[in-house]
């Protein structure tokens, strides 16, 4: 019986190579085949062994350069050919990383899967900006949502944000006007504080602050680009601009 390779679903964290887990770093340095997303920092890819084959399946808004089903098929095909594969993803593979879909297809084909978690984009960005997602005086509940989900206007977001709660929105830059409108329609106060964290844990990180009603203008006027997270809740008002500046310098 021919050897079947293993697919390692590896989280690359928010960007800074220092935030990789030890296991992720070891796999990068030993893997012969690495299939990676576009959000993986070049400094992390540079850790790969010299003879490693790097395959980019970078995602652009609304489409993949390689469709997801073809990515899944690539992982299965290589593993069935006897190759171990590192599937490297920004953040954590199981938080808006489509790692669940890839794991399901691999298991269905008889391919072993190992998940190596990474620091999620939400945790990494909040820590870099010194925003505590939970705080005894401000928030005991955290929710993660995708800002580009289908049927955004039909989603019931009531109760996801507000007093005592923190809402973290992934992939929400392009849909910021709809997000603000939706949350206010579902009862969130227009003056609820928020922060946008762009290029978290990288030298070019920016932390922008505002309120919910001003979210669309903030995105436009500051020319926010992905990767960026939107954090909404009272916890964002507990970190002053001086601390945010310190957090930015700390990543340099």
UniProtKB/TrEMBL annotation:
Record InterPro entries: 4pyrrol_Mease, 4pyrrol_Methylase_sf, 4pyrrole_Mease_sub1, 4pyrrole_Mease_sub2, CobA/CysG_C, Siro_Cobalamin_biosynth, Uropor_MeTrfase_CS
GO BP of this protein: methylation; siroheme biosynthetic process
Keywords of the record: Methyltransferase, Porphyrin biosynthesis, S-adenosyl-L-methionine, Transferase
Pfam family, one: TP_methylase
Pathway it works in: Porphyrin-containing compound metabolism; siroheme biosynthesis; precorrin-2 from uroporphyrinogen III: step 1/1
Gene Ontology molecular function, alphabetical: uroporphyrin-III C-methyltransferase activity
First-tier enzyme category under EC: transferase
Annotated EC: 2.1.1.107
Keyword Isomerase found: no
Superkingdom, taxonomy of origin: Bacteria
Family: Belongs to the precorrin methyltransferase family.
NCBIfam families, per database record: cobA_cysG_Cterm, PRK06136.1
Name of protein: uroporphyrinogen-III C-methyltransferase
Species per Swiss-Prot/TrEMBL record: Allopontixanthobacter sediminis
């Amino acid at each position: 019986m021919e050897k079947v390779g293993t697919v390692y679903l590896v989280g690359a964290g928010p960007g800074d190579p220092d935030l990789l887990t030890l296991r992720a770093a070891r796999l990068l340095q030993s893997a012969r085949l690495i299939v990676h997303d576009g959000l993986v920092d070049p400094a992390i890819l540079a850790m790969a062994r010299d003879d490693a084959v790097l395959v980019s399946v970078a995602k652009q808004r609304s489409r993949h350069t390689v469709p997801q089903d073809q990515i899944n098929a690539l992982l299965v095909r290589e593993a069935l050919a006897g190759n171990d594969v590192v599937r490297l993803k920004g953040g954590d593979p199981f938080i808006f990383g489509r790692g669940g879909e890839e794991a399901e297809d691999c298991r269905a084909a008889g391919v072993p899967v190992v998940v190596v978690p990474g620091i999620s984009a939400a945790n990494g960005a909040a820590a870099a900006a010194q925003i505590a997602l939970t705080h005894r005086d401000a928030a005991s509940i955290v929710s993660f949502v995708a800002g580009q989900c289908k049927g955004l206007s039909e989603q019931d977001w009531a109760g996801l944000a507000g007093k005592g709660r923190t809402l973290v929105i992934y992939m929400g830059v392009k849909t910021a006007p709809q997000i603000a409108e939706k949350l206010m329609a579902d009862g969130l106060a227009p003056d609820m504080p928020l922060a946008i964290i762009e290029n978290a844990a990288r030298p070019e990180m920016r932390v922008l602050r505002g309120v919910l009603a001003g979210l669309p203008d903030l995105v436009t006027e500051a020319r926010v680009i992905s990767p960026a997270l939107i954090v909404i809740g009272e916890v964002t008002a507990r970190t002053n601009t001086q601390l945010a500046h310190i957090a930015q310098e700390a990543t340099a």
